[in-house]
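batch_manifest entry 22 of 60
target: CoA transferase
source organism: Tepidiforma bonchosmolovskayae
requested by: lab member K.T.
priority: normal
notes from requester: please return tokens only, no post-processing; we will run our own comparison against the previous entry in this batch. if the run fails, retry once and flag.
--- input ---
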Amino acid sequence: MDRARAAWYAARAGLELDPETEVVIAGDDPVLPTPFHLGEGAAVALALVGQEADRIWRLRGGRRQAMAIDVRHAAASLRSYLLLEVDGQAGPPAPRAGSNVTAIWPCGDGRFIHLHGSFTHGPGILAELGLGEGASAAEIAAATRQRGAFELEDALAAKGLCAAVCRSNAEWLRHPQGQALAAKPVVELVRIGDAPPEPFSEGDRPLRGVRVLDLTRVLAGPTVARTLAEHGAEVLHIAGPRLPTVERFEMDTGHGKRQAYLDLDDPAGRATLQELVRGADVFSQGFQWGSLERRGFGPAQVAKLRPGIIYVTENAFGYGGPWDGRPGWEQLAQAATGVCVRQGGDGPPVLAPAAMNDYTTGYFGTLGAMMALRRRAEEGGSWLVRVSLARTSMWYYDLGHDLDPSGASGTGDTGDWMLERETGYGRMRFLRPALRMSETDPHWELPTAPPGSGEPAWAG
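--- output ---
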């Protein structure tokens, strides 16, 4: 991938690949069978992360680094949970509650809708369709064919349930939410409070000494903290003891993290989190907007507890606009923004062959956190970083959708990119970071561990 094209990709995100940044991006798309530039896009996002890590490294007294990324490896990183093996066993995540409705379904108006059972939404979606929890695929399809796609989307949204009509990209850009997102950068950085500068001290890695509280689950948010850990941050993942999750996703995004449970509905749990916040540098959350505010941990509340905090938040459909706060997932961002329609070509809409938005939004959230840490070092302040799956999806669409999927090369033999280590789950084989850096090569110091397996305290 040539330098000029990589710089153009960055500019389409409202970002700059500095001409002085020493990075080689080897290879070109198509790697995966899709018309979208997924491998190249992921590689550029990681190059921007590396560029920011290098800037911080030089603030700490280090010398400029050379970087390299293989486009095939970057593409593989968008499917890393599928490459993971534990004790020799590989495979996709086990089905969870609601998974029987999570698919693209035909509607009576000739359109298609993607329903998503989330962790708890399956029964509500089926009830809206007049079905019970044991409904078969044939029964669900028959029920959706009795409804108009947009009417069903509105009805489910009114109940706080997850669904998105498979729109074309042109339809999405005419939609008020698409227009609201088009006016925003891919990475939003907002100063939310005053605080004195906190310069970086000397250290052996770009983020050594940076403490990250990770209150996220399922891919995008967890990827933010995992990627910060790649560059030396101390990450403490806080999970709720009763919140459902997906074990294989936890395995994949848990590298470099320590794990603890806290019940934020318990005053003692909230008090413990407050103490952790006071010692943190980054607070990363991916819950539905407003959920943590009700428990005292919204951006302004956390900035008051810890002036100088970097508050990272990610969601499905962005901030502002008529869909502000609407729940969603990777699949729904693809459906809404036109990816599924384009991926389907002349046939019905289908999903792209990777979690393109989840992982890349995680990379962009990492980039925003690093940018904010550098701003804090130079001028002080508390900072809010906002990223969303739909905005990332729009960026990918904007990069082009002109590739021939039949010409995809595939990731090939991934053996050279895989690592093995003992973990809290067993002997794990997993994909190493795709970004290479000459002075501070990204790596995870800690093995992945099950949620709640440690104590809610900082290491040092």
